[in-house]
Please model this.
Amino acid sequence: MDIAWNGVNYVKLSVPLLFYFILFVGFKILIDKIPILQQPAYKRIVSVAKSTIHLIIIIITLIVALNILGIDIQG
Model:
């Protein structure tokens, strides 16, 4: 597998990274704006939800980046 690293590929790879940044920061801001989730009783649930959604966003970003590079990710 040969990937030509030119300016076009760098621009294409910036798209999933921007996607990751927007989703992660947007989700974090959204969670911080919901007052009921700031209560101590919900602290552990919110922490697990944040970690899970962060992992899902990372996986989606990696899949999109690999697809942009032309790497077949299907089994």
About this structure: Residues 17 and 61 are 7 Å apart (CA to CA). The helical segments are 7-33, 43-68.
